[in-house]
Amino acid sequence: MIHSDWHIHSEHSYDASNTLDAIAQQAQAQGLRFVGITDHANFNDEKFIGDLHSSAVGVKAAQEKYPFMVLGVELTPIEKPEFDYIRQHKTREGYVAPTLSKPFAIELAQTKEELIALGVRYAIGASHWRVDVPNGRKLTPDLDTCIKEWYRQQMWLACDERVTILGHPWYHGKGIWYEDFSVIPQSMHLELAAALKENRKYVECNSHFFCSAKATETFKHQYAAFLRELFERGIPVTYGSDSHHEYGDVRSQVEPYLTAAGFVDGDIAELSQDDLW
Ligand SMILES: [Zn+2]
Ligand SMILES: [Zn+2]
Asked: How far away, in angstroms, is 217 Cα from ligand 1 center?
């Protein structure tokens, strides 16, 4: 059912160790048609932009041998005041978040023009942390607050021109909703689906939801059903292993849940040439 992988991190990412050669060889062993390299560009500072440059140079060289490799990027919402601070000071060091009475504006590390100039063909937009919850920075986030903030970020990503694929929707590293995915209101799923559809975005089936030791069986089935609902509303679903280390084949841990939710071979999408930059 899964024939391409659009979300892989290479050693050019600050947090990953896969070499491009190892990724390509594993892809060939799996018979994948395409692999997308999407290293992190979290902030607009020298470190992250440097990583992105070396990812672009590395992938360009690897493509001579492995034409099925595609250069992408993973972008994540950051606070606009921090983005502005980095632009001015060239570093994140010394940044103090201002106290605001409303949520921070969101920014991404690079403009579309900057990404295209590097040869990037598409972007995964994915939430990783709270940008801000007013007056709540030092409080332990409660479930409702987190869900609302995740919803805000994902709706923003669904409407941003840089985002090709909404990556790991509703991923939360702290795992506070891994027990029961139904804590997220259906109305949010419907709004998100409408925004993704209207803006012609893809949505990602990320392997971590199905491979995580924290995820219960119930959660995995609920999550696959959520992806199926998006699919049936006309939003193409891509697959992303989101591998950082020792790239391997985890499709057999994902596909049974997709099958149970109603997916058949041919349903999992590839990025079309028209949607690549
Ligand atoms: Zn991510
Ligand atoms: Zn990732």
From this structure: 22
